[in-house]
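Record now logged underneath.
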Amino acid sequence: MNRHFFLIALACLAAGFTPLQAAEKKPNVLFILCDDIRWNAMSCAGHPNLKTPNIDRIANEGVRFANMFCTTSLCSPSRASILTGLYAHTHGVVNNFTELPTTLPHWPQRLREDGYTTAYMGKWHMGEDNDSPRPGFDFFATHKGQGKYFDTEWNINGAGTKLIKGYYTTIVTDMALDWLARDHGGKPWALCVGHKAPHSFYTPEDKYAHVFDAVRVPYPDSAFHLYDKPSWIRDRLYTCPGSLIRLMLSSGSVFSL
């Protein structure tokens, strides 16, 4: 008998169940994606102004990867990589307007094939004008493009556009909790929740509107020193993510480009 398997078998017997029973018990999977949150924007990462107790609890009771990198730091390509495990040059989603190819398998789809019930709710954003259900999910709720912080129009399971009033973060969280409370027929489940926050342009709930009024958030010195950068980086200054920079330029501030 393989020594490692023997040790595992002893551990299982000591716990009161057999290796076969252990193999049959499948864990539930909850995946939560925050949008555009930088690496240190958590109190568990040492940020002096941000308080993120719920994220901190996950970090403290689980694992926090403090030295990891995003190879394609753009919305749609990174989402496609998270789902498929592939780099952008392989999955083909190289911008924010490309659909994830339906021929590519992703991990929720594989779990579904293995007996899981699967759901996705929130920002999908692979296919700017498409809010239809994607393959591999038993429940699918999303919207076109970025969605809105308030009163987003949702397409739930392909039923068509439905305006749901309220703050985005609250709506998608409630939607997830409602789905989790359902009877899944004894099946294990895999739930993906795609939040919009904290993607710009930033619109907080009223109760958080003035939390950071006294906090100064300066741009780093290198923010506008792009003369020695590749053209694709310099060109980003004039795209949607560069809108805030353009507003600063139009306000009379002078920067050296």
